[in-house]
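Thread: Newbie trying to understand structure tokens

Hi all, I'm a second-year student working on a class project, and my supervisor (Dr. K.) asked me to get a predicted structure for one chain before our next meeting. I've only ever worked with sequences, so writing a 3D structure as a token string is new to me. If someone could post the tokens and maybe explain what I'm looking at, I'd be very grateful. Here's the chain:
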Amino acid sequence: MAYPYDENANLWWASIKSDRWAHCVLNYPNVKREEIGCWPRDDALDGNIPNIKAIFWHGSDWFNQLTNINKEIEAIKKLELVVCSDSTITPSGLWADVLLPIATHFERHDVALPWTRATTTSTGLKS
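---
Reply by user tm_fold:
Sure, no problem. This is what the structure looks like when written as tokens:
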């Protein structure tokens, strides 16, 4: 995600590795920072393990991309909210409580210019 350069430009947000979210959900609070890939920090968040209650998937299908599908299904059942935003109904979208559509490249930019934008030549014929 790209953040604009403003008062938040130098903030470092707490995060975990994407393939470790299920382990964190299933084993909270008995999880060590190293098990979920949290980097050491120099502030109050150092060592704090997130209690994940919701997840937002955008344009990625973790069930196809990560390593342990059964563990992910077990973890997703424990979540209070699952939101998925994608151009097709992916396996992750099937487990979502809220499914939000997004426009594909063809819907945003189209394949070619429509006939109404075709130019005319000197002969008056559309090209």
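A couple of things are worth pointing out once you decode it. The helical segments are 21-27, 62-65, 69-76, 91-94, 105-109. The radius of gyration is 22 Å. Feel free to ask follow-ups in this thread.
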